[in-house]
Design brief:
By secondary structure, this protein is mostly beta strands. The chain folds into two domains: about 40 residues, no CATH class; about 80 residues, no CATH class. The chain contains two helices and ten strands; from the N terminus they run βββαββββββαβ. A five-stranded mixed beta sheet has the order 6-7-5-4-10, with no helix packed on it. A three-stranded antiparallel beta sheet has the order 1-2-3, covered by helices on one side. The chain has a two-stranded antiparallel ribbon with strand order 8-9. A hairpin with a 2-residue loop joins β6 and β7.
């Protein structure tokens, strides 16, 4: 569980992660948005094939665009919790469900274009 715990000297909220009491700094714009009170957060997944084709998906009800990728709304994906790690440990997560999109063709799958693809959350 992540919760807003305090403000630093620059009036930027910091968050604490319950199980190990570590503090992380948030991007200033994001911290300001969260500090306003009630908010909604959405998951975004960027699928990057080995041929550098990128597809973006989100659990939001509309298209989100940032970092040069448009994230199309899809149903059926559920992002798991991302455990906090200290130091150089690799952060991992799980995504459950079935991804259905017109951007992913059966031919591309059969031709192996998604083999070895990377997913960023």
């Amino acid at each position: 569980m992540v919760e807003l715990t305090s403000f630093d000297d620059a009036k930027v909220p910091t968050i604490g992660i319950d199980r190990d009491s570590t503090m992380r700094m948030l991007d200033t714009d994001f911290a300001t948005h969260i500090a306003q009170g009630e908010t909604t957060l959405r998951h975004c997944w960027r699928l990057i094939r080995r041929d550098d084709v990128m597809l973006g998906f989100t659990d939001h009800n509309g298209v989100l665009a940032f970092d040069g990728t448009d994230y199309a709304p899809v149903n059926g994906l559920d992002g798991g919790d991302v455990p906090a790690r200290l130091g150089a440990q690799v952060q991992t997560s799980e995504v459950f469900g079935v991804l259905t999109s017109a951007a992913i063709s059966e031919d591309d799958i059969l031709l192996g274009r998604y083999d070895g693809a990377m997913v960023e959350i």
